[in-house]
Amino acid sequence: MYVLKIFAGVVCSLALAATLSHAAEFKCRMNFFKDTTYVLPEKQFSAYDKVRLQIVCQDLPAMDYTVTAVWHNPTHQVQRQDSHSFQLASTTGYRISFWMKILEKGSLQSALSNRDFFDSSYGRWSVLVYVNSQVIGTGQFTVTP
């Protein structure tokens, strides 16, 4: 019986090590862009711009994936969350794009304050990107008036 417990412990340890090493294999990078050409990365945006996030992963093993981007405003509140699920039949790369537009004030608030956006919209934003619930990176950009 003691031998079975040791064997079960070794099998569980090997399974955990295989899972951890597999999770560390994600090779992804992210950049922010103002347009859909995705040529010139940007770090500074106007509040009127559409902020586009592109995530490029390479050498992903064949399996099911969910990529999630969690957008945090300058006051560290979650402003938006995007997810995309896909399945790969063989090891390959994959490109995902998400976008966000800054929330504008309503017509009356805008007219009364003479500003189109809330003050909390301006400053440094951050985006956490996950692949299958594992954080693979954080990106930051700045929104100016």
Describe this structure in words.
With 145 residues, this protein is an alpha+beta fold. It has one domain: Macroglobulin (MG2) domain (Immunoglobulin-like). It is built from 2 helices and 8 strands; from the N terminus they run αββββββαββ. The strands form 2 sheets. It has a 5-stranded mixed β-sheet, with no helix packed on it. The chain has a 3-stranded antiparallel β-sheet with strand order 1-3-6, with no helix packed on it. The radius of gyration is 21 Å and the shape is elongated. The N and C termini lie far apart (70 Å).
List keywords for this structure.
single chain, Immunoglobulin-like, 145 residues, disordered N terminus, 3-stranded antiparallel β-sheet
Q: Count up the domains.
A: 1
- For the record, the CATH class is Mainly Beta
Number of helices: 2
What's the CATH H-level superfamily name? Macroglobulin (MG2) domain
Structural class: alpha+beta
Strand content: over 45%
Helix content: 10-25%
**CATH level 3 topology:** Immunoglobulin-like
Which H/E pattern describes the elements?
HEEEEEEHEE
CATH architecture: Sandwich
- Which stretches are low in confidence, meaning pLDDT under 50 for 5 or more residues running? 2-24
Mean pLDDT value: 81
Largest sheet: 5 strands, mixed
Strand order of the largest sheet: 2-8-7-4-5
Give Rg in angstroms. 21 Å
Judging from the principal axes of the Cα atoms, what is the shape? elongated
Query: Distance between termini?
Result: 70 Å
